[in-house]
Amino acid sequence: MTQFDQEHIEVDAFDREYPIEELLPQELMESIGTDSADMLPGQWAILNEKGNWHYRFGSWNPTLSGRLTNRIVEKQPEGETICVRSNGSCIALFPIEYELEIKGYMAVCGPCQAKHQLLETGRAGVNLLKQLIRLKHQTMLTSGLHGLVVEESYADLKKKAEQLSISEEKYRNLSASLEIEVQKKTEEIRTAHAHMMQQEKMAAIGQLSAGMAHEINNPLGFILSNLTTLMGYAQDLATLMQHYRHLAALCSGNNRGGELPSIQAQCKTIEKSEQTLDGAFLLADIPVLVDESLSGAQRIQKIVKDLKAVARPGESEQELINIHESLDAVLTIVQNRISPKIEVRRVFSPVPLLYGYPQEISQVWLNLVLNALDALENQGTLTISTQAARDQVVVTISDTGMGIAKSNLPKIFDPFFTTKEVGQGTGLGLHLVYHLIAKQGGRIEVHSQPGQGTTFTAHLPTEKG
What we know:
- By secondary structure, this protein is α+β, with helices and mostly antiparallel strands.
- The protein has 3 domains: 12-152, Beta-Lactamase, CATH 3.30.450; 204-310; 317-461, Histidine kinase-like ATPase, C-terminal domain (Heat Shock Protein 90).
- It contains 11 helices and 12 strands.
- It has helices at 12-15, 20-23, 26-35, 62-75, 115-151, 154-251, 260-277, 279-311, 323-333, 358-376, 429-439; strands spanning 43-48, 53-57, 81-84, 89-98, 101-111, 319-321, 342-348, 354-356, 380-389, 392-399, 443-449, 453-461.
- It has a 5-stranded antiparallel β-sheet with strand order 2-1-5-4-3. The protein has a 5-stranded mixed β-sheet with strand order 7-9-10-12-11, covered by helices on one side. A two-stranded antiparallel ribbon has the order 6-8.
- The model is unreliable at 1-11 (pLDDT under 50).
């Protein structure tokens, strides 16, 4: 028997189960994949409650796909699950619940060393999908309601039109609130992404902290040594000044004959004191010690200034940037990473100033230079060149290191992709470079030959974007 609710609307049409394929259709998922490419990992997918694949983003091999399907079929996980792949990557599996039922699962893949960020990003993605499912379900119910109203009699239609008006207002308000919630969740993902980028920046600075401490400690050491020596010189000069003052006091008297022996004796005391102190050497050494100390202090000042230029938080306004000063600042703070067997070539041509975000531009050079030094493995040549090209500044950073395999070149800018050993890289360095250069309105190219080296070329517009 057909059931009716209080408004005589058939319940059967509204009580049926909607699979995830209807709640998250392909065209909607493709839009999400495009709009959220910079917030979600390079590999994520949606599976239904039976483990069948509904949507994939990124490259998923068939073997891995089959394992995920079997895991869902066999265990039907109700909570977050972490799977570890043999290559050091992790897959996080999140159930997608709606109205107390599991409609499907979201799988995200990334390196195990970034598991915390992977879980945060996956949870934010699942929350976004839940909001979209709720909005889609309400839209489908509203659409079904319209279809039933058309089939009713004219009398019922008038009555239901009034009810529908109330219902639509309710759903309109619900839709508006859901849109606000979606925007909120999207902003949370963007914030998490920005936080992750800042962590990558500080991780790069952290790798250099010991070296920079050494660079600061060296000049600080001889400054302290020189100050100690100067303090001793000051004490010696103070003693000599006391002798001279005593002589002056004797000479300023009535100069009676009886005082002449005292004056002669004081002169001999001064002469002996100068011989003991080696006054000529002391007076010659003081300017040398002062010059050395000033040079050391200026060295420390430059290191701190350059470090501040790279590590400071980002400003919201663009300003004029001197590319050569930006590159030199980075070379200063990585100086301790440059071994004696590495030759650094600076091939700088005259280039115009460009508008941009200084700290972000410095972060680009820092990541690229550190990447090149890792590839060189303490020997080889690092070449940094600049040139002007129409309305652009072109910066090239080359190394003669191990190079990049051809199969890896299309993936080097993907988030979490790394060829380093587990624990040695987050896979975010070059992704951050790509993101920051795109933010400046520029582009980056890479050319590499295994065994010969790698060249990154950044094209940055000079006009304010």
